[in-house]
Design a protein that fits this description.
The protein is an alpha/beta fold. It is 40% helix and 16% strand.
């Protein structure tokens, strides 16, 4: 017959069960720290974007003031990207080279331009980037025409936090002439429409003296061929510094009869 300890309890020589400490008190087992995969991914993306920024600013150098404005813009874009699709998610690691430097290269092609019109601004490329670059220029203005209300709201916030000379117009792209007052030196668009349609959108502004700089992809030759069915044009092509794309420069256009 087994003996029991005083009070009928278990013998003092019995080992405490898992989770029990001295005297039978319960002590929770130590837990392993949880790995926040989302935070780890964010840190990894931060590192990639930081390296991409260095590469981009070698392609398109800017002042410290412009760089600070662009930093604020990128931070805002990443915040809004979670709820509004502003750029293709696959391009996030290359925001600076794929989008910022790609937009900045337009400044060198129109060094005297102060007043810009960006048609279909979307996430702000090239319009907000140009506005950041123009912020220190007296008399500068960048008109951003966007038909989607959420994106127009983002553009207004981007203009505010970057303190840049941007003016946002919530309007259909074809209504830009009615919205934009005053002269425009340069009209641009990126990833908006085929070239022959872009020329149609820009033609009223070009009649008033603006030249056009349109960012296009590798299929630029086929787009030019199609555009000549509708327009008399003498395009000048500039190869993009940031990839395989092209910039189509047009000083004047005339509709074919």
């Amino acid at each position: 017959m087994k003996q029991r300890g005083p009070g009928g309890g278990r013998s003092s020589s019995a080992k405490p069960s898992a989770g029990e400490g001295a005297g039978g008190r319960f002590e929770p087992a130590p837990t392993r720290p949880k790995i926040d995969k989302a935070s780890a991914n964010d840190r990894s993306l931060d590192a990639v974007i930081a390296a991409d920024k260095i590469a981009a600013l070698k392609l398109a150098p800017v002042s410290h003031e412009t760089e600070a404005r662009l930093d604020r813009y990128i931070a805002l874009l990443r915040e809004w990207q979670a709820k509004t699709n502003l750029v293709a998610p696959s391009t996030l690691p290359h925001l600076w080279t794929r989008h910022i430097a790609d937009s900045l290269q337009l400044v060198a092609l129109a060094p005297s331009a102060k007043r810009w019109a960006d048609l279909g601004s979307g996430g702000g490329f090239p319009g907000i980037v140009l506005a950041c670059a123009m912020a220190g220029t007296a008399g500068a203005s960048v008109h951003l025409v966007e038909r989607i209300a959420k994106k127009a709201a983002f553009l207004r916030e981007a203009v505010r936090i970057t303190t840049s000379p941007g003016v946002v117009h919530l309007a259909e792209i074809g209504d830009n002439v009615d919205r934009i007052t005053g002269p425009v030196d340069c009209v641009t668009a990126r990833a908006l429409a085929p070239l022959h349609q872009l020329i149609g959108f820009a033609e009223p502004l070009m009649r008033q003296g603006a030249k056009a700089l349109f960012l296009k992809g590798q299929d630029v030759e086929s787009e030019l061929t199609e555009a000549t069915k509708y327009w008399n044009i003498q395009p000048q092509l500039h190869q993009s510094r940031t990839g395989d794309g092209w910039i189509v420069e047009l000083a004047s256009v005339e509709r074919r009869g």
